[in-house]
Amino acid sequence: MFTLYQLRIFQAVVQEGSISRAAEQLFLTQPAVSQHVHALETELGVKLFLRGRKGMTLTPAGSIFVDYSRCLFRLVEEAKQAVAQAAHVKGGELRIGASPGAGAGLLPDWIFIFQQQNPDIHTILKTEITPLIVKSLLRKQIDIGIVEGKVTTEDVKVIPLWDEEVVVVVGPGHRWWGKTHIAASELATEQFITREDGSLTLAWVRNTLARYGIRPQIVAQFDTPVAAIRAVRLGLGITFLPCFLIQDELKRGQLHAVHLQEGPLVRTLKLLWRASSSHNYAIGAFVRYLAGEFPHVPIQITNEATNQLLEQLKSVSEQTGRIINHTLMKRCQ
Questions:
Q1: CA dihedral for 272, 275, 281, 285, sign (positive or negative)
Q2: Residue 55 β-bridge partners
Q3: How far apart are the C-alpha atoms of 195 and 199, rounded to whole Å?
Q4: How many alpha carbons fall within 13 Å on the CB side of residue 122?
Q5: I need a surface site. Which of 2, 139, 201, 328 has the fewest CB within 10 A?
Q6: Per residue in 212-263, pLDDT tens?
Q7: 85 and 277 in contact (C-beta within 8 Å)?
Q8: 294 within 8 A of 162, measured Cβ to Cβ
C-alpha cells in the first residue's frame, strides 16, 4: 500500500509540474523524488504522469488520483484533531534539543507552525552538538532531539526524517562562483571553514574528504552555522552546509552552492527520544505534527480510546486505497 509520504511527494510534483522543482521544495534529491513517484505508479499499476520537455503533466488516471489524495489528507487532518481531543490533559512544556544546523535552519519554522496549532504548549529550543543532545535526553533535560549526527546508544530511539544533500558553499568572487559541479580533487587546495572540534559535523567533513585522499586545510572554526555562513560571504574560505540552511542566501545571490561530480553528499536528519520516555501531551502533539510532515513517523499514543480510533482510521485508509486502485484501473481500461 502506498504511503502518505508518497502522496505528499506526488502532490508536490503536481503543484510544481517538475521533478526538479518538487525536489527543491521538499529538500530531496531529484532521484529520490523520481523513485517515490515510480513506486507509487507501480503500486497503483497505472501511469500518473506524462514526462515531456515542458515538465510533468497528469494522465487521466493521475487527475483522478489528485482528488483522492486531497481527500486522504483531509481525513488525516480530521484524525489529528480527533487524536488531540482524545487527550484529556492539554498544554504543558516541550523541550526540544537540536544540532546547530537543524536548530538554525529548520526548527524556527517548525515551532512557528506547531505553536499556531498548539498555542497552549510552551516550546523551548536548545542547540548543541549531537553527543550533548543525546546526554541531555538521557538526563531528562530535554524531551526530544532533532540531529544530523550519528547516534549509537540503545537508550535513545532514532527515526530518520529525511536525507538532506550537503553542498560546497562559496562566496562572491570565488573561482567556482557560477559553476554547478567540481571534481572532488579540486577541494585539496581550498581553505575550509568548519565546525568546532568534537562536532560530528567536523568528523563527517574529515571522513568525507578522506575518501578522496584530501586532508582539509582549516582556516577557521565556528560553533554556529550562522557564523560560518557570514565568514564564507566575506571570503574567508569555503564550507560544507546542508541545502536547507542556505536557501535565503542562494536566492539573494549572497552564496553559491557547488556539487561534486562524483555524486551528491548526503546526511540524514533524525528524530530522537528516550526509550523510556513518558508520552505526555506536549510530546504527543509535536510527534503528531511531525507525522503530518513525515508520515513514516510513528504516532505513539498510550490512550486506549485514541488507539482504537487510529485502528479505525487505518482500516478506512486501507479501504480508500482499494477504492482508488479499483477506480483508476476501471477508468484507464
A1: positive
A2: 52
A3: 6
A4: 2
A5: 139
A6: 999 999 999 998 899 999 999 999 999 999 988 998 999 999 999 999 999 9
A7: no
A8: yes
Do residues 107 and 49 lie in contact, with contact meaning Cβ atoms separated by under 8 Å? Answer: no
Phi and psi torsions of 195, nearest 5°? -75, 175
For the four alpha carbons of 33, 35, 40 and 44, in that order, the dihedral sign comes to positive
- pLDDT reported for residue 28: 84
Amino acid at 133: I
Give the number of other CB atoms < 10 A from CB of residue 238: 23
Q: Tell me the average pLDDT across 147-164.
A: 85
Rg of the chain over Cα atoms, rounded to whole angstroms, equals 22
Residue-wise burial string across 298-333, b where 16 or more C-beta atoms lie within 10 A, e elsewhere: ebebebeebeebbeebeeebeeebeebbeebeeeee
H helix runs in the chain, sequence order: 4-16, 19-26, 30-44, 60-86, 100-105, 107-117, 130-138, 200-210, 225-233, 247-251, 281-293, 304-331
Domains of the chain with CATH codes: 4-86+307-331 (1.10.10.10), 92-161+269-303 (3.40.190.10), 163-267 (3.40.190.10)
Give yes or no for a contact between 273 and 283, defined as CB atoms under 8 angstroms apart: yes
